[in-house]
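Hey, I was hoping to borrow your eyes for a little while. For a while now I've been wondering how a particular protein folds. The fold is given in discrete form, as structure tokens running alongside the sequence. Could you read through the record and tell me how the tokens relate to the sequence? Take your time with it, there's no hurry, and the full record follows here:
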Amino acid sequence: MSWQPDIARLQARDDEEWCQVEEHFAGRLLAYAQRRTGGDVQAAEDVLQETMLGAVRGIQNFNKAYTFEQYLFGIVRNRSIDYLRRRKLSTLMGDEERDDFPDLDAFVDQADTPSAIIRGEELTDRAGELFVDILRAWVGETWEAREFQRLAVLEALFAAGWRNRDVWRHFELRDETAVAGIKFRAIKRLQALAATMGSGNELLRYLASAEDGGGRMLDMDVGAIWAQHQVSCPPRTDLEVFLAGGLEGAGVFLGFHLVQRGCENCRANLDDISGDPQAIDALIETL
């Protein structure tokens, strides 16, 4: 298991603990920022510095619903967006012939803006938290069972919102019925996990109505929840094993996760682990 900081020590402004944070996370955060800023090394370094300052300032309000890595990546994403907005604004203001300025929110693709953790109006906050816990438990089970294609199929269905026929063709499954079967069994397992958790019955009616292939489950904006909480991102230690030639069969999931889903967090981890982004580009092309 990768190193995780002592949040209490961080909140107490323990210099040694914060130095450990920089040692363990700076590389992957810099790799992420560099990609977000178009390869501008100086800008990426500035974003990283702002990220670390933001992490120190905000640690008192750390939300335990997230991992510490998610906390840091959330900050670096926001700081990258701020950088892109400033750069766009600077470019526009340098155009003396232009006198109509669009809304700043238009400078950055809306898909890149931080989304709400839970958007479904009918879910309580507690139900939303439970749903994240259930998704994580279920993804963990699937990963531990090394059912990588199944996980990729379910990420395509639940996170990316693909239709059964698109999933069937992409993963070369037998037919759409095979996709429906995978989805049905996943929802049944989610129901079983919900039933074992405190207040889990709050979710059962939503999960039950998803059995017909649509319904309330998708109304919860599963894709936003999935991405916000990075529920399918492999542990960094598993990415290290994969780069070393282990985790046989994981390429089918990582190919979808990195290419179709475009997971920048995992990409930043791979860049940092390898130290050679171009080699990672070449590797991803083979997945």
Observations:
- The radius of gyration is 20 Å.
- The chain is about 65% helix and 0% strand.
